[in-house]
Design brief:
3% strand, 7 helices, mainly alpha
Length: 140
């Protein structure tokens, strides 16, 4: 009984996280990748079938698999994410959002997204070479 309840909680939180990740594709400043990674963690704890669906999904799967492979996002991927996010923030604020308070919230969300992508999400080297060198005891 308790295990089923915990799995249901993981499933619900994973689905909420996936919804936020999907919204993050559209809404500037809301990061997508961290929510997809959280979804993967929660789905693997609730349902192997949902986890397999997520990582085999042509839209979401590559984000998660690349992160797993490199144990983080490459600098190039981070730069791409931040550039795209700030382009969308600027377009939204300049052309589509009339209220000053909402503009301020979107810009604040952009700064939070920048912080998360830049400092919270680990930066990986291409192919993870730098990490494996350290694991072997060799320095690069």
């Amino acid at each position: 009984m308790k295990t089923k309840l915990i799995k249901a909680l993981y499933f619900s939180l994973g689905t909420l996280s996936l919804a936020l990740g999907v919204i993050g594709v559209i809404v500037p400043g809301l990061p997508t990748t961290p929510f997809l990674l959280l979804t993967a963690i929660l789905y693997v704890k609730s349902s192997k079938k949902l986890y397999r669906w997520l990582i085999s999904n042509p839209v979401f799967g590559p984000y998660i698999l690349e992160y797993r492979k490199n144990k983080g996002l490459t600098k190039q991927h981070k730069v791409y994410i931040l550039m795209l996010m700030w382009i969308m923030v600027c377009i939204s604020v300049l052309f589509f959002i009339p209220l000053l308070m909402v503009k301020a919230l979107v810009v604040l969300a952009g700064f939070i997204g920048t912080y998360v992508v830049s400092l919270v999400v680990p930066t990986a080297m291409v192919g993870g070479k730098a990490r494996s060198d350290k694991a072997d005891g060799r320095s690069s």
